[in-house]
């Protein structure tokens, strides 16, 4: 992304181009992570991350799974078991809280 690009517009364009989702339907919750300079060893500069939840149909999910063995659907239980494999930290809580309905709408800070 460029410096002034919109996270939501960039995510929408990516979903349309990569997964052929014509009109992605976003959830009411999204994750925000802003690193500090020096925290990110890969880039050695502050980085901003947004995590969006997108609603897809079973057919869309199947089509995405068929694109690559790297794409799979996990249950909430499987997601919790794999929490150490997923970054940034906090995504599992974001998703489970959204699915289970106990997390409020709007931005949630991820650590």
Give structural attributes:
111 residues; 20% strand; 3 strands; alpha+beta; globular; 4 helices; 35% helix; three-stranded mixed β-sheet
Please give a structural write-up.
The protein has 111 residues and is of the alpha+beta class. Helix content is 35%, strand content 20%. It is built from four helices and three strands; from the N terminus they run H-E-E-H-H-H-E. A three-stranded mixed beta sheet has the order 2-1-3, sandwiched between helices. The chain is globular. The chain starts with 6 loop residues before the first helix and ends with a strand.
Q: Briefly, what is this?
A:
The protein has 111 residues and is of the alpha+beta class. The chain is 35% helix and 20% strand.
Low-confidence stretches: none
Quantity of strands, as a count:
3
Radius of gyration, taken over Cα atoms and rounded to an integer in Å:
15 Å
Spatial strand arrangement across the major sheet: 2-1-3
The secondary structure category is alpha+beta
**H/E series:** HEEHHHE
- Our estimate of the beta-strand percent is 15-25%
Measured distance between first and last alpha carbons: 21 Å
Calculate the mean pLDDT score and round it.
86
What best-fitting shape do the alpha-carbon axes yield? Answer: globular
- Count of helices? 4
* Percentage of residues assigned to helices: 25-40%
Query: How is the main sheet built?
Result: 3 strands, mixed
